[in-house]
Amino acid sequence: MASLLSGAARAAHSAAAGLLSAAQITAGEPIPVKPVKEDDLQQTTVMDLTGKNIILGVPGAFTPSCSSQVPKYVEDYDRYKAKGVQNIYVVAVNDACVTKAWKAKLAPNGTAVRFISDDTGEFTSGLGMLFDATKVLGGPRSKRYAIITDGNRADFVAVEDDPGSVTSTSSSSILERV
């Protein structure tokens, strides 16, 4: 019975990932207002997208490519602020305990970069950025993307063709566009 339920759950995750990410956000479209978590398993919030912001979507906390990509955003934080960026949000389809621990690992001395848990995938799905990563990461995850916002609208959107690659979503590439 347990294996039957487990198989059904995997099939449901795969189907959800395929159905929920049909319409990928493009420049000019509004950022969905969906609940996310930051540092707390119980407290949900919505991102404050006043002004210019960076939303960086990553497939998984603690994965090698994500753990090598994000530190450069932490390092470049003051350069983004100097260009008028209000917040940098790193969004992962992981629970808040995982994103909080990942932040502590990547920035042991602290950082103003905000690590966001989209534990249900609702925010990521609303962007059209959810994909089926069941074979590698156990379920639906975020595509690797970077969005520059102007208020609550996407001003620029970069999405990696291969979620394991970091080219158009690297901090240096996005910093040039801000």
Note down, in words, how this protein is organized.
By secondary structure, the protein is an alpha/beta fold. 36% of the residues lie in helices and 24% in strands. It is built from 7 helices and 9 strands; from the N terminus they run αβββααβαβαβαβββα. It has helices at 2-20, 64-75, 77-82, 96-106, 122-126, 134-137, 171-177; strands at residues 36-37, 44-45, 52-58, 85-92, 114-117, 130-132, 140-142, 145-150, 153-159. A 5-stranded mixed beta sheet has the order 5-4-3-8-9. A two-stranded antiparallel sheet has the order 1-2. β1 (36-37) and β2 form a beta hairpin. The longest helix is centred in the first third of the chain and has 19 residues, at 2-20. The protein is globular, with a radius of gyration of 16 Å. The model is unreliable at 3-15 (pLDDT under 50).
Question: What is the H/E order?
Answer: HEEEHHEHEHEHEEEH
Major sheet: 5 strands, mixed
- Shape type: globular
Spans with pLDDT under 50 lasting ≥5 residues?
Answer: 3-15
Helix content: 25-40%
Tally of separate helices: 7
Rg, alpha carbons: 16 Å
Q: What structural class do you assign from the helix and strand content?
A: alpha/beta
Strand content: 15-25%
Q: How many strands in all?
A: 9
Task: Tell me the strand order in the biggest sheet.
Answer: 5-4-3-8-9
How far apart are the termini?
53 Å
List the helices and strands and how they pair.
Elements: H1 2-20, E1 36-37, E2 44-45, E3 52-58, H2 64-75, H3 77-82, E4 85-92, H4 96-106, E5 114-117, H5 122-126, E6 130-132, H6 134-137, E7 140-142, E8 145-150, E9 153-159, H7 171-177
Parallel strand pairs: 3-4, 4-5
Antiparallel strand pairs: 1-2, 3-8, 6-7, 8-9
